[in-house]
Amino acid sequence: MMLRPLLAACCLLLPSLAHALNLGAIRPDEVAIWMAPQDGGPAIVQHRADVPMNPASTMKLLTTLSALELLAPDYRWRTELLADARPRGDTLDGPLYWKGGGDPHFDRNDLAALARDLRGRGIRHLAGDVVLDKQRFARTGSADDFASDSDKAFAVPPDALLAHLKVVWTTLFVQPDGVRVALDPPLDGLKVDNRLTVSQQANCEGGVKRYASLSAQGDTLRLEGALPAGCDGGKLFAPVWEHDAYQAAMFAALWREAGGSLAGQVRRGLTPANAVTLASVSSPTLAEVVRDINKYSNNTMARQLFLTLGAEFAQEGDVLRDGEAAVRRWATQRKLALPGLQLENGSGLSRRERISAAGLGALLQAGANSPYAPEFMASLPIAARDGTLRRRFVGQPVEARFKTGSLNDVRALAGYVKAVDGRRYALVVLINSPRASELTPAMDALVAGLIRHPGRLEAEP
To answer: What phi and psi values does residue 123 have, to the nearest 5 degrees?
Structure first.
């Protein structure tokens, strides 16, 4: 196996004997690596491990572990419908206040449940306005340099009344006379430009995204492509509108679906102190939300969680700054050295966020020793099985749980592995390079090599 130049080999720091440095297609200056026993102890492999790197979505590990320990796994968010006037028969004359708690998981089923409970109180007519109360998150922060991705689901910004992740799902039904499209949730004012045709192909090999595309353009969803019969029932989704417009349309549709009528407008405002709760719904537990965040690398939900920390541990009254302060205080209390840590929104959807491989490694060791280790570790994708690792390491003897990270110039893995000798390790690999998108196979080969031979930095050529 060919060695890289001596200068590159000097970048590798091992506590014992020197080993060959073979990174395959990865250049030494493009990668940082850290590997140590899962439950604690010094690193057995370090390569540029103290260099602050862009971690992409592996930054979610910091947000989710700190939240589990600060809020506890049974924490839940609450969303309410309130009024400051008593109903008159089946009519509510005054405003109805829809008060958001920042729930990352609130969806159309939750809003439908609120509407049903309101109807259960005998209220049918809303004569006043519906007021969107978003004071929980007075500021939501940024994801700088992602403006060109504003139409992508991964870039949906947080919101105190986040609803259904601000996306519309389309279900495609292949019929003899064409393709019928059903929307969920149904949104008033959203039109469908259905240009789908039925192809002669029978099977849906590769999935529906291979044959059909969905894009949102203003008030119109456009669907294009030729759909095989085997894609019947396939689903596509896309974010639409701004939060306020989405929430207004979703409320109007689901309130009407529940048999209610609305005479007023949907607008922003604040809930009066004397308002009374008419209906409420609680989110799944934080442990369940963390699982969704890490398994599927959901940026919006991670940002909601980061802001929730700021709301729960308020100091300055700025949820974004207070969220970062809460995370940093927690890290200090846990005696986690995170030199060079930079935070923007806690999700990794950032060009500015930084953390070192050693910092992520220390975080993983803390997670393995946390009172909530089962919840935290179970939230990570399983190699070749689920989440963002479902199609990676397939057919390989790799027993691992990794949080993945991916941006244009970033590829990252951080998690737990079981080596062939039966020992368990925490492992971090961060690649920052314009070639990052080409290097996923080399990264996976590097990981597989470290699992086969812990302490030796080797990859298949």
So the answer is: -85, 125
Do the beta carbons of residue 135 and residue 270 sit within 8 Å?
Answer: yes
**Contact 348/57 with Cβ under 8 angstroms?**
yes
Mean pLDDT of 322-351: 96
Q: How many domains does the chain have?
A: 2
Residue 94's domain is classified under what CATH number? 3.50.80.20
Tokens of 26: 């990865």
Q: How far is CA 148 from CA 112, 145, 151, 155, 252, in A?
A: 33, 8, 8, 10, 30
Q: How far is it, in rounded angstroms, from Cα 447 to Cα 461? A: 13
In this structure, is residue 57 part of a structural domain? Answer: yes
Residue 367 structural domain: 6-74+287-452
Please state, as a whole number, how many other Cβ atoms lie within 10 Å of the Cβ of residue 16: 7
Instruction: Give me the amino acid identity at 70.
Output: L
* Ramachandran angles phi, psi of 206, nearest 5°: 90, -5
The pTM of this model reads: 0.92
Between helix 319-333 and helix 60-71 the angle, nearest 10°, is 80
The DSSP call for residue 342 is B
3-state secondary structure of 158: coil
Sign of the torsion angle spanned by Cα atoms 357, 377, 45, 384:
negative
| Domain CATH code at residue 355 | 3.40.710.10
Chain mean pLDDT for the chain = 92
Residues 201-249: tens digit of each pLDDT: 989 999 999 999 999 999 999 999 999 999 999 999 999 999 999 999 9
CB 352 within 8 A of CB 342: yes
